[in-house]
Structures are given as C-alpha cells and as structure tokens.
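Propose amino acids for all 367 sites.
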C-alpha cells in the first residue's frame, strides 16, 4: 500500500489535519530512484517521508492512526477508530487516498457521528471506499479530481489487498516481537550479526540455535544471550540501542526479501549513534523497491545533511492557540525551492517555526 493523502478531523489531537505524499515534478538526479508507479511516470509519490518536529506534535499518533486504518482492512472493525475520537460531542472523520499493487487509486472515507449518550453504534459510522483506474498519463492530482466528483464506483474493504505493512515504535524495543516469518531468509542472520556487532563491539558473533525454532544466541566475551521469538532473555546486559538492533535488522531483511510494502519507523534510532542511524537509513532507502514507502520520524538533525530531495522532509508543528488546526504539516519543499538551499540551515534558523519554546525552562534557572 502506498499512502498518497491523509485528512484527519477529531481523531487523537488532529483537527483539520492534512498531509500529502505526492510531489509536483520529477527531480533531476534524485538520490531516491523510482518515486513513481511503475509504467506510470506521472503518478509520483514520496517514497521516503522523513517526519520531524518537537515532542507531542503528533509523529507517533500519525503512525498509530495509519496502523488502525490499515488494520481496518483485516476485518472491517471500526471500533478502534471510535476509541481515538477526541471530542465525542463532535463528528470525526478520516480520509485516506492510497494505491495497492493494482494501478488503482482508492479513497477511504469514514465519518463518525456523535452517539446517543456517548455510545456509538453502527448507524453512527458511515464508510465509503471509492476508486478510479490510473491510466498511463495520469497524475495523482487528476485521479483525485475524478474521485472528488463523487461519481466514482465503490468497493468494500475485503476486496482490497493491502499487501502488508510494518510499524515500529521505541517502546517496542522491550516488547516480545516474533520474527519467525523471516528467520529462514538466508540474509537475516548475516544482517542481524552485522548490525548488533556495530551497535555493540563486545559482541563476538550471532549464531542460530538449530534445535529451537526462531532462536538465536548472541556470543559475548564472557557469556551468551538468547534471542527467542524476537525477545532477548537477559535485557539488563545489552544497551537500549543494541536491543533496537533487532527491529533494525528485521526491517532491512524484510525489505530485501520483499515482505512488506509500507514501513513506519517511529524514533527507531532514539538510542543509536547518529552516524549509525544515517548509515542504516541510507541502506533502508536503497532497498526500497517499486511500490514501497517509508515513513521515518526522528529528532536527529544530522539526517538533514543526507542528500535527499527536499520534498522528503515534513515538519509537524503544534499550536495550542490555533483551535481550528492545533497540529499542522509543513513541507520543506514549499519553502526551499533552489537546489542550493540548505535544509539544515533553515531548521537551525527556525524557518519553519517548529523549534520548541524554552522560556519556561529558563524560568527554572531564576528560582
């Protein structure tokens, strides 16, 4: 699944929120290849979406919202979206334009009306999924315009093959995660060992325990640790960054073996050295094949030095004084038009007005 456009109202802290994943024209000599549908060169989409912003600006919430949206296609259960309505006295809505393995643009629209006495029933939830075929000369904008007309045919959630996705959050480092679906891939053990040894030089090697399914052993100088179903038995010995290596290894290996279409990595490298984060991100981007998409949140401004197109960078801004749109999306490419414009200098000079307010912290120093 490729996400092209998201509109959110009254879910989590989002109100009148809009983020778009198309871009207007081909970038010459771009470091990201194939940012368009195969055989549809005009239908461009952002393969890599680097999402930055201060704390509590909605980076994690956006990922969780997308995960709930995608889970809807498993069983059509809308209850999870009801659970994240912010103001239950008002309507809530979610609109997502997306593309799957077919050359078809789908639009998912769900509106949830306030329930009686705070209780929601099926009659309060109105869902429509419309679609239009993507012709060889179509752009996203022309297809979206056809859907805007309101005459496009409808389909149901169980007729759509979303083809897999993967979401990773920082708290997942300590959770039991099963990677049995990829353990037989011949590249996985090599990737796991290379990443863990990079994160912790005291690790001598990583071996597969043949006698037990989905089990590996991390060999250190004086002892060994067991990884069983994605969980390290003794979590006190390894650093948080090293434990994050399990998720990093899985993502890279799954890209190589074509496991998922969409990845949402939320602060996956919070405990990892900046140079390692940049190196792993470059590998992940390099392995993004056709019809793949990455959402990557980070606070690391060193990422801005990577030679990525400016349209790959999005900044989330929170303004509690703006009741109509408390969280907004700022596209770097809307401000920086020239190839020589420095994205890092723009952020350092707070061009996007996303720097955190520090005056309350400095008031502590006056005590």
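Proposal:
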């Amino acid at each position: 699944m490729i996400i092209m456009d998201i509109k959110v109202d009254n879910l989590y802290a989002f109100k009148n929120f809009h983020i778009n994943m198309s871009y207007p024209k081909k970038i010459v000599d771009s470091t990201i290849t194939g940012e368009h549908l195969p055989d549809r060169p005009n239908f461009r989409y952002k393969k890599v979406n680097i999402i930055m912003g201060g704390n509590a600006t909605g980076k994690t919430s956006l990922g969780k919202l997308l995960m709930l949206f995608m889970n809807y296609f498993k069983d059509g259960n809308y209850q999870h979206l009801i659970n994240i309505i912010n103001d239950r006295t008002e309507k809530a809505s979610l609109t997502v334009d997306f593309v799957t393995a077919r050359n078809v643009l789908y639009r998912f629209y769900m509106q949830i009306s306030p329930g009686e006495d705070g209780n929601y029933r099926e009659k309060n939830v109105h869902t429509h999924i419309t679609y239009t075929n993507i012709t060889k000369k179509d752009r996203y904008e022309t297809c979206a315009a056809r859907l805007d007309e309101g005459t496009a045919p409808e389909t149901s959630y169980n007729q759509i093959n979303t083809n897999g996705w993967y979401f990773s959050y920082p708290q997942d480092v300590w959770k039991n995660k099963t990677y049995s679906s990829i353990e037989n891939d011949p590249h996985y053990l090599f990737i796991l060992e290379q990443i863990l040894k990079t994160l912790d030089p005291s690790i001598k090697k990583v071996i597969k325990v043949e006698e037990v399914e989905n089990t590996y052993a991390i060999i250190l100088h004086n002892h060994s640790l067991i990884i069983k179903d994605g969980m390290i038995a003794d979590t006190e010995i390894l650093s948080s960054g090293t434990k994050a290596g399990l998720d990093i290894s899985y993502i890279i290996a799954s890209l190589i073996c074509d496991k998922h279409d969409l990845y949402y990595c939320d602060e996956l490298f919070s405990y990892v050295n900046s140079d390692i984060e940049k190196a792993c991100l470059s590998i992940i981007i390099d392995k993004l094949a056709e019809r793949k998409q990455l959402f990557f949140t980070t606070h690391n401004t060193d990422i801005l030095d990577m030679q990525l197109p400016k349209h790959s960078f999005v900044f989330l801004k929170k303004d509690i004084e703006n009741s109509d749109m408390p969280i907004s999306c700022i596209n770097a490419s809307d401000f920086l038009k020239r190839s020589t414009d420095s994205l890092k200098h723009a952020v350092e000079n707070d061009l996007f007005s996303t720097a955190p307010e520090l005056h309350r912290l400095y008031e502590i120093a006056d005590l």
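The mean pLDDT is 89. The radius of gyration is 22 Å.
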